[in-house]
Specification:
about 700 residues; alpha/beta; Rossmann fold; 5 domains; 7-stranded mixed sheet; 7-stranded antiparallel sheet; 23 helices; 30 strands; about 20% strand; ATP binding
């Protein structure tokens, strides 16, 4: 398959089926652009109504072509495109690019046409349909109809782009050119009837010209393939940056458990991206900002940033935004400050604080070079942001040259913030190896990504193989709380002691047996959120539990219209941090969720997720990382003299829960423990409530 993709991206000959002699029409663009941008191979226009298109011979049909094309661009409509695909496949063509729309995106008739397309292709590969094509800037090969190719010149660089939207390809191509950002290849996959996102990530991971891979993602159709391709890119040292659309449609669906409300499709993408080392762009603008920074190959080891400015306001703007994102902008240490002061030739520069303000002295290239070199050499800083003010507009080449001269002296990241509206200055700096941005937020996003890439540890390791648990006796449907916790216990998750009761007398006896204070709950597979209907009472004793049972039965019947017949009397876990531990499954896979628990779980939404590996449950390292990722982690780690929690026992419970999810597989629809009490170090954990739904 890689050979077919190589021929698709680097063809020696291209047939254009349905080519028009009118370069102003969409069907006339591909031939016009191939010629305009210097394609060195053979071009075979196919149109039975035209003898020549420009200087090229036009052929009446595919059978008449003088040779076998590596690629065929099919410009026919959806009702006829499959005929051209069939004929190209018969000639031995490697791949066809089908531009027509009107396939699965239009309904049943479109699905029928897409099936025809697949059948017609046989073993030949297809890009599209509904694609705008591809652009290989590395080799001057443009197999596309995007109007962005009207531009005469595009910077060539190390960023490869794969987009599931055709229009976005043209947008990125033109925006990158305007900003001086060099691209290598751009591919629009669109409907992905055959070749898809993961195929091109895999290919670009091997492409010598590509250093960073940028993705515009609508959906991931094959999660396992996507995972493997991204992990391959990570192993090759090529960062992958993704902008995923559809967040507004990713609201959590109605679900039995809190986990269903907390997870949602977009959170699943977050988990997938994190685990395979993909940097997620939060805005469309960041889909160029971040790759432009990463393409320099510089990585940010720490979070201390020096800001060198010739305009105080802009320096403060960048410093403030960096601070909000967790970066530090410390003042120079004594040695650095002394070295900076030694450069000063007048009274204008303020070189012993951060931002380091050279103001009017910034017009002196010697001072600028000196300050940059001192800051890059300083042990106080991990990166340098240079503010380009209005005073630099008169001599942008001098400014860019001074900065560029300093780059070989350090491998620390160096970026620029262009304060006035001067896109030509930003493009010049970017082309000279200094990624330049027009917004302070873009500087922060770039540095954050450079830091993330330096510290990424992709790849999910499975837990050690566990002995299979017997599950043949499990019923289908919603389990009641007692049954759910019995299932958790089988896999090694400790649960609070409890007794099933039906009468006040039985409740009193159970409370005496358990000792101390107890919790009373209704036991029902139909009512999951028991506290919402008055079905939970805490702090009861043997003397009070019987009367509370009678009152609870009446309250639940009034609120839920269901008369409870059975109840749980449960030992009351007196202390500990309440967490929620659940699972969620969608098209991307099965995820384990951990977060702040109890009745406020959906209010605070302090959660983290991990997708299960292809086989088995989570590793202990992943389980620990989940706990440490929570904002509430300090509560487990001895916050303000609080006893440290039994994190080791929590990790064991997370792994056991994940192994349960892995073994049950598709049969497990929902599962959740809320709350799981994490007690003081050495005292373990206790699952105090549970939900399980089985198919």
């Amino acid at each position: 398959m890689n050979d077919a993709i190589s021929r698709l991206l680097q063809p020696r000959s291209v047939a254009v089926i349905g080519a028009s002699a009118d370069a102003g029409k969409t069907a006339g663009r591909p031939v016009s652009y191939l010629v305009k941008h210097g394609f060195a191979g053979a071009i075979y226009p196919v149109n039975p109504k035209v003898d020549r298109i420009g200087e090229l011979t036009c052929y009446p049909d595919i059978a008449s072509l003088p040779g076998v094309p590596d690629v065929g661009i099919v410009l026919l409509g959806a009702e006829r495109a499959h005929l051209a695909v069939r004929d190209l496949a018969a000639r031995g063509c490697a791949a066809a690019i089908v531009l027509a729309s009107g396939y699965t995106e239009t309904g049943e008739d479109g699905a029928r046409r897409q099936k025809q397309l697949i059948e017609a292709a046989g073993s030949m590969r297809i890009l599209g349909p509904n694609t705008i094509g591809l652009v290989n800037l590395t080799d001057n090969i443009v197999l596309s109809a995007t109007g962005a190719l009207e531009m005469a010149h595009f910077p060539v660089g190390g960023i490869g782009v794969v987009s599931q939207s055709g229009g976005i390809l043209g947008a990125l191509l033109s925006r990158a050119a305007a900003r001086g950002v060099g691209l290598s290849k751009l591919i629009s996959t669109s409907n992905e009837v055959d070749l898809e996102l993961a195929d091109f990530i895999d290919h670009l991971a091997d492409d010598e010209a590509t250093k960073v891979i940028a993705l515009y993602v609508e959906t991931v159709r094959d999660p396992a393939k996507f995972r493997n391709a991204c992990l391959k890119a990570a192993r090759k040292g090529k960062p992958v940056v993704a902008f995923k659309i559809g967040r507004s449609e990713a609201g959590a669906k109605a679900a039995v458990s809190h986990t269903g409300a907390l997870a949602g499709a977009d959170r699943m993408y977050d988990a997938l991206f994190q685990q395979v080392g993909v940097i997620r762009a939060q805005t469309f603008g960041e889909l160029l900002d971040i790759p432009a920074a990463l393409a320099t190959g510089r990585r940010l080891q720490g979070k201390r940033v020096a800001i060198l400015t010739s305009t105080g306001g802009a320096g403060t703007l960048v410093s403030d935004d960096l601070g909000m994102a967790g970066f530090d902008t410390p003042a120079p240490d004594a040695a650095t400050a002394e070295a900076l002061r030694a450069l000063q030739t007048g009274d204008h520069a303020v070189l012993d604080r951060n931002p380091i303000d050279v103001t009017l002295a910034g017009l002196q290239p010697a001072l600028l070079r000196g300050a940059i070199n001192v800051l890059l050499k300083s042990d106080s800083y991990d990166a340098l942001t240079i503010i380009v003010g209005s005073s630099s507009l008169a001599m942008p080449e001098l400014l860019a040259g001074a900065i560029q001269d300093c780059l070989p002296n350090s491998d620390k990241p160096v970026i620029a913030y262009v304060s006035p509206h001067a896109p030509e200055v930003g493009a010049l700096l970017t082309q000279r190896g200094v990624p330049a941005f027009a917004a302070a937020e873009s500087c922060t996003a770039a540095l954050r990504a450079m830091y993330q890439v330096a510290h990424l540890q992709p790849q999910v390791e499975a837990s050690a193989p566990a002995a299979p648990v017997a599950l043949d006796d499990l019923p289908s449907g919603s389990l009641d709380e007692y049954q759910a916790k019995q299932l958790f216990t089988r896999f090694g998750v400790p649960c609070a002691g409890e007794r099933i009761v039906a009468t006040p007398a039985e409740a009193e006896a159970a409370a005496r047996e358990l000792g101390g204070r107890v919790v009373l709950k209704i036991l029902s597979a139909e009512i999951t959120h028991k506290s919402d209907v008055g079905g939970v009472a805490v702090g009861l004793t043997a003397d009070t539990v019987g009367a509370r049972l009678v009152a609870m039965a009446a309250e639940v019947e009034a609120k839920a219209g269901v008369q409870p017949r059975r109840f749980l009397v449960q030992e009351m876990v007196g202390s500990g941090t309440e967490l929620i531990l659940g699972m969620h499954r969608d098209a991307l896979g099965t995820a384990i969720l951990l977060g702040m628990g109890g009745v406020t779980a959906e209010l605070f939404k302090d959660t983290t997720m991990r997708l299960l590996p292809p086989e088995g449950g989570l590793s202990r390292a992943d389980a620990l990382a989940m706990a440490q990722a929570l904002k509430s982690w300090p509560l487990l780690d001895g916050f303000r003299g609080r006893p440290k929690a039994d994190v080791k026992a929590l990790v064991t419970a997370i792994v056991a829960f994940s192994q349960m999810a892995a073994q049950l597989g598709e049969r497990l629809v929902e599962a959740e423990i809320n709350p799981v009490f994490v007690q003081a170090q050495g005292q373990g954990v206790r699952a105090a409530d549970g939900v399980v739904v089985l198919a």
